[in-house]
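Fig. S4 source data, part A: sequence.
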Amino acid sequence: MLLRLGEAGAITLLANALALKELEGAIREKAPQSIGALALLLDRAQFAIVGPSERHHLLEARRLVDHPADALVLGSALGHDIQFFVTLDQKHFLGNESLATGLPFQIGTPGECLEWIRRRLRRLTAG
């Protein structure tokens, strides 16, 4: 659903280049026949690819996340004006107590992001 919202232009989707490279590697390993479909989905969803962040964002991310690749992804998020960081990574993100407070955005699963969007839309239409 998030990809469809991106495709419709209802939300802006950002993805770190490293995260996409990891995703591509996992797809190539587990379902190589799906690489074309992945490329098509990413294109249709209008993902903006973001690169490395500024040094201070990376240092902050390294303080919060001990896994180097995930710290790079978090650093990129800190360097952009995002409102919700979507992940399925229980170990380094969702289960990380250091991320519970202090981030300028919310962090959660795709389902949690959709619920967050629904709540915001209800407030906008009720007000």
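Fig. S4 source data, part B ends here. The first strand starts at residue 14 and ends at 16.
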